[in-house]
Predict the structure.
Amino acid sequence: MSRLRAFAILLLSLLLAGPAYAQQPAPPATSEEGKPRKLNRKERKELARRAALDAAARQRVNLTEKDREMSEAFFVDGVRFLLLEDYNKALERFLKAYAINPTNAAINYKIAETNLLSGNFKDATNFALVAVKLDPQNAYYYLLLAQIYASQKQFAEATQTYTTLIKAVPNSGPYLFNLADLYLAQGKLNEALATFEEAEKKFGPLDEVSFKKQQIYLKQNNLDKALQEGEALIAANPDEVRYVLAQAQLYATNNRLSDAIRVTEQALKQDPDNPRARMILADVYRQQKNTPESERQLKLAFESPSLDIDNKVRILVDYIKQLPNPDLNQTAQELAAITTRVHPKEAKAFSIAGDIQTVTGNRPAARANYLQAIRLDNSRYQIWQQVVLIDAELNQIDSLLTHTGQALELFPNQAPLWFYNGVGYQLKKQPAKAIKSLEYGRKLATDNPELLAQFDTQLGDVYHELKDYPKSDAAYEAALTFDANNAQALNNYSYYLSLRGEKLEKAREMAGKLVKQNPDNDTYLDTYGWVLYRLKDYAGARQQLEKALKTTTDATVVEHYGDILFQLGEADKALQEWQRAKKLGGASLLIDRKIKDKRLYE
């Protein structure tokens, strides 16, 4: 027999040879007059449970050597399956061992443990109670029973188990900490405090206990006691900066600002670059309305690489919620710049910097930061979307096409990217490519009616450029079916109908509706005026164009006004407007002939 086998048998013998203890049956229940009374259901159930436990404890089993070996074998198998987390097989083996030797405490303990891990709390409780009765000096059995109770949120029973353990088992003082935590879980602050103090009498002051006592005092609104506990902790650990900062934070949170500054500066003497100390000071100076010093401390904190990027991002997000704000814009931008400098390989640093530049109105700088974020991590669609939006806002068509093309290689199912790609080709005067992108993207947007309407409106514009008027009209109609007030669709549809001289009454209805909703928009006024012109309502057209010219010097609007004046017989004034339109740039190809011949060409 190998030494290992001999050792295993010896260990199992110790585990399996637990003593059996005879228990006295519970006395019968009596009434106040001393007569037996009828038990209620709860009492009967409890009596039956105790009887079962007592019967198991009283039972003595005289094992043969063969039975002992079989029990040990089943037990070892059960432990193996338990370690493999195969709880069904483990329980099967333990129960076979139990059938042979039911009064062995270790077997009952393992059955209880396996049931706990399997979620069978009822059987776990019963077998753990038997294990404790069979071997009331084994601390591990109490711990398992307490864990089972706690798992069912039966904190009172768990508390009682720890109390019994501490009293019954020698050298169980360390479990006072478990007991105190259970009291905390039940909200029994006084009992928890008393238990912690009892533990400190046995083991001396402990840092973790001091922290917990401090939290208890704070919950009891006993700030002075909490602060005393913190000062004692610092005195016992003068080199631990974290304790000093915890005390400073406590002062700051409770508006003891001068004390907070004093204690924080004490920490900075030990660790001058500590970012948490700078953050506390920044908050304290902010509360004192000392904005310059608060911002200085915050920037010093941001300069530290040990203040991790996630904390910095959270702070910058709080700034974004307050922007744009003339008092905060510069500080936010400077903090963002520090973040990108200190964390040059963090995509989120450049992403948040881009967000801040966007909100504060610096679109080129925002795009530069977003693009750097993409170089570091191109997997975030939202950043690509921001780049594309800025390209469109800046009207930088080449960049728009480049960036939408790159993004679509990564996110081919994102309909907005196809939309902007199509818009880019449209602005590049490549309508066939625009149609291809817009029609493909439209298929991806069928579950988003609002986006679908944007595709339809844009398709209406592009199909008009291709002179495919039936498809153009159908696209506009589809957009207006979803949103009857779609400004782009109403304006462009009515204007293009006026250019074609078709459905002019429908065009007047749409343009008039748009002007009623937007009475000061010069583009819409020009469209409405031009529809009226095509309907030969020159006086009405003049009225709309004169309103538009109060807010615009667009060459097309000026030229239209000249055309209207000519139709009204004011040829000299019409010539002046045509000349002005030519000078502004952007008039129609007929403008030179109109000026040269002093007559209207359409």
User: Anything to note?
Assistant: Confidence is low (pLDDT under 50) at residues 1-37, 55-60. Residues 65-83 form the longest helix (19 residues).
